[in-house]
Design brief:
The protein is α/β, with parallel strands linked by helices. It has helices at 13-28, 83-89, 91-101, 112-118, 134-139, 163-176, 178-187, and strands spanning 2-6, 34-39, 46-47, 53-54, 58-59, 67-70, 105-109, 126-127, 143-144, 149-151, 155-158, 196-197. The protein is built from 7 helices and 12 strands.
Length: 200
């Protein structure tokens, strides 16, 4: 499985790095996956909302990717860089929609869920986001679920910031089993939190 964690100017660092570390730890423990930090367009560095600068390992064009994880950041305070700015430009939501239409599973962390909504992917489907953006997600047409992680098959979402760790552990469990997910949780010394809402 090839996984892309998308970063963009103003992304919340833990939204991206938490799932990245979980999945890289699962890979080291034997899961058949490759996880990369990617951008929409090629760039040498990206600075997150708290000032951390990272060097992306590729772009969305380096796919195909089986799974794309979308962090949030900068939505609730309408920061000049971040998820809100990306939604306003429309370019990243359009790229995410293309990835989805190409067969990728999409998953969001925190207000990354609003980018999936901006891509038109959440309408009529169960989803969650950071609690401060609940009403906006509902207004975008999603069936709002107050859960740590929402799994609707090819579209997953999770609550604010640290919920991305639980999202990634759920993805490990979903794809490689509970035993490996628990092993990864022990390795990173994380006590898993729920609930996971997975409607049929």
């Amino acid at each position: 499985m090839r996984v892309a964690v998308v970063v963009y100017p103003g992304f919340d660092e833990l939204d991206a790095i938490g799932p990245y570390e979980v999945l890289r730890t699962a890979q080291a423990a034997g899961a058949d996956l490759e996880t990369m930090l990617v951008t929409r367009n090629r760039t040498a560095r990206v600075t997150g909302s708290h000032g951390l600068t990272v060097e992306p390992q590729g772009t969305l064009e380096d796919g195909p990717f089986d799974l794309v994880i979308v962090p949030g950041g900068g939505w609730n305070n309408r920061a000049p860089d971040g998820a809100y700015a990306e939604a306003q430009s429309g370019e990243l939501p359009a790229a995410l929609r293309r990835m989805y239409e190409g067969g990728a599973v999409l998953a969001s962390v925190c207000t990354g869920g609003m980018l999936l909504a901006a891509a038109g992917l959440s309408r009529g489907r169960p989803a969650t986001t950071h609690h401060e953006a609940f009403e906006e997600l509902r207004e975008a047409g999603a069936e709002l679920v107050d859960a740590r992680v929402v799994d609707h098959g090819d579209l997953l979402s999770s609550g604010g910031v640290t919920a991305g760790i639980d999202l990634a552990l759920w993805l490990v469990e979903r794809n490689w089993g509970t035993e490996l997910a628990e092993e990864v949780a022990r390795t990173i010394e994380h006590e898993r939190r729920g609930p996971v809402h997975a409607p049929g």
